[in-house]
Amino acid sequence: MNKLADSTEKLREKYLRKEILPTIFCPGCGNGQVLNYVIRAIDQLNIPQDNLVFVSGIGCSSRLPAYLEAYGIHTTHGRAIAYATGIKVTNPELTVIVFTGDGDISAIGLNHFLHAVRRNIPITVICINNETYGMTGGQISPTTPMGSFSTTTPYQNIEHSFNLSFLAKAAGASYVARWTTAHSVQAIKSIKKGLQKQGLAFIEMISSCPVNKKKFGDTREYLKYFLNESIRYSPNNNNNTSAHVFKDLNECFTAHYEGKIIIGEIIDLEKPNYHHLYEELRVRAKNEFWERKK
Amino acid sequence: MKFKIVEEYCKGCGYCIEICPKNILKESNHLNSKGYMLPEALHLEECIFCKKCELICPEMAITIEKEEIIA
Amino acid sequence: MRIDLSRDGYNNRKGGNNSLKLITVDDILEPKIQFATGNEAIVYGALLANCRFYAGYPITPATEILELMARYLPLLDGGYCLQMEDEIAAIAAIIGASWNNYRTMTATSGPGFSLMQENIGYACMTETPCVIVNVQRSGPSTGQPTKPAQGDIMEARWGTHGDHNVIVLYPNSVQESLWVTIRAFNLADKYRVPVILLSDAALAHTREKLKIPFQNDIDIINRIPVTIEKAKYHPFRTGYTYPSKVPEMDTFGQKYHTYLTGLTHDWKAYPSTDSAKVHEQLVRRFYEKIVDNHSDIVSMELKYMQNADIVVVAYGIASRPALAAVEQARAEGYKVGYLRLITLWPFPHDEIYEISLDVKKFIVVEMNLGQIYHKIVEYSRGNSDVIKCFKIGGELHSPGEILKKIKKR
Questions:
Q1: Quick check: A66 and C15 CB within 8 A?
Q2: In whole angstroms, what is the distance from residue C98 CA to residue B34 CA?
């Protein structure tokens, strides 16, 4: 059966908690789109629903787990990845997906994110990046572009912004992909790929916050912006796609590409994850124990 | 082809209208109980079943149904 | 061996060590009589109590607990020990892991304990069992890292924001550290609450004779799992399968799909922040599940209480010189009793009140500037004088200092 053709009705029935719909998200909010993509990805991979654990922090993106008919744990601000580490390490059978926002993961939660990447904990982190603190009314976050006006930067933002995907790559993540919420098919594909990775997968979804980002006028303009201003990154020198081949990551930061949204698969590799290494550790520990007992 | 939408979930964002490659969808004059303007489908015979509208919808409110032709 | 049966899954896990001989806690804790420190006793107690997940961060004087767990947990099937990037990550990891039906623990001292407060509140709100050890050192701030103090008593009770209830225990010897640790895990599971186990820099590093029991001789009281059919299950409904204010506890990976949140939630677990009624019912139940079980949770040690008209109140390490002072005073003919709190919170309010009816004076011995002192004043309700015997700076009271207060008119 062609899984792609599974009806949205059936997916809603299976994966959404109907009693609390419609969602609290504003009209045009990217969170709902990410929910749409994640549901399709997990369904197409046939992941057992009982084994799904959605972990989130605080913010609009972090309200997603409540809508899913699966295990969900809505934790404290910035700490989702630390909770996810405890959850995944003690039960490798679980599929642990972290929903977080740009503020949650890169301001208060940056430390936990970098260390989970460093440990290569086999979780999938989906950062829904709307370049603002949406829930609290539009303050800047570490991904808000320099020069932006916001409630906490009435005289413009004078801080540079992070590119979370590049940060993840630099920290050593196994799989990093960056799409906007307008790139449905690519997002679903990347989420599926990330879920199948043995190591930590980081999927950054550049998302819309129509309520706090007034410069776009209406939601349809916002969508057009995502489609028109994104430029596809390819790390391959011999790629025969229409993706632009950047010389290196530094080129992405040059003035020529300012204001553009860089999308694509940033890195895709495999290396032993925390469980692999811990089980090897266990063998060493037990051998040493019995040697000493002799 | 049938364009089905769960009226009560729609928030009138217009993404489906924007994304349709065949420009089949447009704003209707119909509001749901929350006051959101629902989309409606014209010229459904031109629908290519790409399902971009189903995918782009933040509320998963849209289902496109193909009427099967049994040979 | 009364270990909960879901542990059988460990042996079948991919990458498990079926080829290597199984190591049990009894194998590790040898010999059975050791000259051990308080920190070691806590680790042994945790292992005996089936703790199999530890996440921590190095901090004086609790570091040895992390180091020993790092050495022992990988030997046990399903055992994991992680050194996290900070104390906040440590407490978060142990709360998460607890939902995989693990008994989990972390240990820290003052500065780390302060960092953990937000997530301790999260454990209260989601009713997640876990044990948090605070090996107290002199504060505030960096303070005197290697010196004992009892300055975190109020913080242990009220450190996290909002109305909440926790259980706080504090042993006073190396032997007792082992047994109180086991008790901490049992209380955490039974009442689905974070349990704070206090110790101090002196108790942590003092060596005393320690008798280690076999696992068979330990009573383990596990959390009650969910067994009802899915359609009837509601994560935070209580009292419908058997009388209790503690809900049955789900485990990730099953069919019940529990949703946990730090937001105020109804018994279906859905966020319900607009209803004063829902909030009140939820938060009152957190209180009541502890308060209603006061006699099961509270414990203390009373000695020499016969015809006493002065009672020396102490806890933890400060109770050692206090007992010496009381015994000396009795030998000299003073009618003085000894009351040692083992459970600090919930506070034994009724018990103190009862005693205050017969007693002229309480002498409160603490290594701080007065924390339990205020509770004694409160619950003696004016029936007795309450005398301060405080000491800070990292030195223990000498029995002589306390004796002086006993003798003072």
A1: no
A2: 42
Integer Cα distance of B13 and C67 in angstroms: 55
Closest approach of C54 to chain A, Cα-based (Å):
9
Q: Please, what's the b/e burial string for A38-57 (b: 16 or more CB within 10 A of its CB; e: otherwise)? A: bbbbbbbeebebbbbbbbbb
Q: Do A and C count as touching (3 or more CB pairs closer than 8 A)?
A: yes
- Packed helices A8-15 and A30-44: angle between N→C axes, nearest 10 degrees: 90
A12/B60 CB distance under 8 A: yes
Which chain A residues are closer than 8 Å to B13 by Cβ? 27-28, 210, 219-220
Q: Is C390 exposed, middle or buried (0-12, 13-18, 19+ CB in 10 A)?
A: middle
Strand partners for B62: B5
Residue A78: how many CA atoms within 13 Å on its side-chain side? 16
Residues C249 and C164: their CA atoms lie apart, in Å, by 19
Cβ–Cβ < 8 Å for C79, A70: no
Residue window 170-189, chain A: list those with CB within 8 Å of chain B. 182, 184-185, 188
Among the partner-chain residues C122, C253, C259, the one whose CB lies closest to the CB of A76 is C122
Say what the alpha-carbon torsion angle A224, A225, A226, A228 is, to the nearest 10 degrees: 80
Question: Closest Cα of chain C to A263: distance in Å?
Answer: 31
Q: What is the pTM of this model?
A: 0.94
d(CA C116, CA A77): 13
pLDDT digit string (tens) for A243-281?
677 777 777 777 778 888 999 999 999 999 999 999 999
Binning pLDDT at 50, 70 and 90, where does residue A17 land?
very high
Of the listed ranges A2-6, C37-41, C131-135, the one predicted with least confidence: A2-6
Residue B29 pLDDT more than 80?
yes
User: Interface partners of B (3+ CB pairs, < 8 Å)?
Assistant: A
At C269-322, the pLDDT tens digits run: 999 999 999 999 999 999 999 999 999 999 999 999 999 999 999 999 999 999
In terms of pLDDT, which residue wins out, A122 or A245? A122
- What is the rounded CA–CA span in Å between residue A44 and residue A38? 10
| Whether residue C117 has pLDDT greater than 50 | yes
Q: Residues with Cβ < 8 Å from C332, sequence gap 6 or more?
A: none
- 3-state DSSP assignment of residue C72: helix
- Whether chains B and C touch (3+ CB pairs under 8 A) is answered by no
Q: Tell me the residue ranges of DSSP E strands in chain A.
A: 52-56, 71-74, 95-101, 124-129, 175-180, 201-206, 230-234, 244-245, 261-268
- Per-residue exposure over C18-41, b if at least 16 CB sit within 10 Å of its own CB, e if not: eeeeebebbebbeeeebebbbbbb
Nearest-CB residue to B55 (from A9, A12, A36): A36
Residues 20-79 of A with CB under 8 A from B: 21-23, 25-33, 35-37, 39-40
Q: Where are the alpha helices (DSSP H) in B1-71?
A: 15-19, 52-56
Within 10 angstroms of residue A107's Cβ, the number of other Cβ atoms is 17
